[in-house]
Amino acid sequence: MLLQGKTAVLTGNPYGIGRATANLFVREGARVVCIDDTSDGWAPHASLDGVAPHFLADVSNAAEVAALVPKCQQILRRVDILFNLAGRTIRQNFESTTLEAWNQMIARNLTAAFVCSQCFLPLMQDRPGGTIINHGSIDGVLGNPSLAAYSAGKGGVIPLTHVMAHDLGKYGIRVNCISTGGIRDGAARPNDADLVKATPSRRTGTPEDVAGVALFLASAWSSYVNGANIVVDGGRTTITQGCA
């Protein structure tokens, strides 16, 4: 088991990638706690019931997250792995994007990673070997039409990761980013055929594809990987119109 004896906090996204990662981490020996503003995604998942408790909080709200830190400490005692998974999309062309929507997207897609990392840092910095994983997107690398706020928010996650890797290295904490694209969970969507056509791997990605990379970054296998942005998109960003 790659994470035997480790503890992990997953913040945001109780569906898809979050659930797949929580499952994999538990199977690999970690004790997991999940935090998000909805419990719907965790509740029906039997393999996590009683194994990975979940708490409700707006992960971009520092006061709400800070209030949960003592509860997580009571369960886990410390935090070895923090996976900042929060993300949300509102599709609006640039000229129609409202300031309210902009602020919501920046809060969810960028501020949440900053807030959760700061709040849980005290449970990580006294124990070398910790790792923080931020969830980015290829939309934050190239931009995506009609997703100005989302692209900007996820785009900020990458330099945030670089700065965190530098500043937290003195605590023995590694910080890396996973930028995903074309990940599908559940029923097929109308544009899936176009997505597959634009993907060199000729398929859409699964939450498990991302969870495997998260496991690598959370484990000792990646002990010298720090400040990296690993793209998980089936090769879409290798071509000019990768986000099309």
UniProtKB/TrEMBL annotation:
Gene3D superfamilies found in the cross-reference section: NAD(P)-binding Rossmann-like Domain
Sorted UniProt keywords: Oxidoreductase
CDD domains: SDR_c
GO MF terms, alphabetically ordered: oxidoreductase activity, acting on the CH-OH group of donors, NAD or NADP as acceptor
Keyword Calcium: no
Pfam families per record: adh_short_C2 (PF13561)
Signal sequence residues: none
Keyword Oxidoreductase annotated: yes
InterPro entries with a match to the protein in the record: NAD(P)-bd_dom_sf, Sc_DH/Rdtase_CS, SDR_fam
Family designation: Belongs to the short-chain dehydrogenases/reductases (SDR) family.
Protein name: Short-chain dehydrogenase
